[in-house]
């Protein structure tokens, strides 16, 4: 299933409106990079994709198992190393609830099964066309 998003950037430096269907978000760059800091920057959006997908995937599994977990907290730190063409995502997951060792082990496997995690750990190809 393909998804389509559209980013539109006018003359206001880096203030970009991104739409997907009826939903819209704003992205921008921080002040020190010439933006107005009115939205997430693109790297934050990338990290957000992993964090939110992980949380949703875990919630679906936890609900199916009927485990008593009030909150799922996913923190993602993204470090990019352009010179070595390497990026490192550090994902820290905590739960407000009582889970035993076996449940935690299973949830680790489920976190790695989130669709965004799978995309980021697979081969990625970007095809660009100008029209």
UniProtKB/TrEMBL annotation:
Transmembrane segments: none annotated. It comes from the Bacteria. SUPFAM superfamilies: OsmC-like. It holds the Pfam family OsmC. This is Putative redox protein. It comes from Chryseobacterium ureilyticum.
């Amino acid at each position: 299933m393909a998804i389509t998003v559209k980013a539109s950037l006018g003359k206001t430096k880096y203030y970009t409106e991104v739409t997907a269907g009826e939903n819209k978000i704003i992205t921008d760059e921080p002040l020190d990079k010439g933006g107005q800091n009115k939205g997430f920057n693109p790297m934050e959006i990338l990290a957000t994709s992993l964090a939110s997908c992980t949380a949703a995937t875990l919630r679906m599994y936890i609900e199916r198992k009927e485990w008593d977990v009030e909150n799922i907290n996913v923190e993602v730190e993204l470090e990019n190393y352009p010179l070595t063409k390497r990026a490192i995502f550090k994902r820290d997951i905590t739960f407000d609830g009582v889970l035993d060792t076996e449940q935690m082990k299973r949830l680790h496997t489920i976190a790695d099964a989130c669709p965004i995690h799978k995309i980021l750990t697979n081969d990625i190809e970007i095809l660009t066309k100008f029209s």
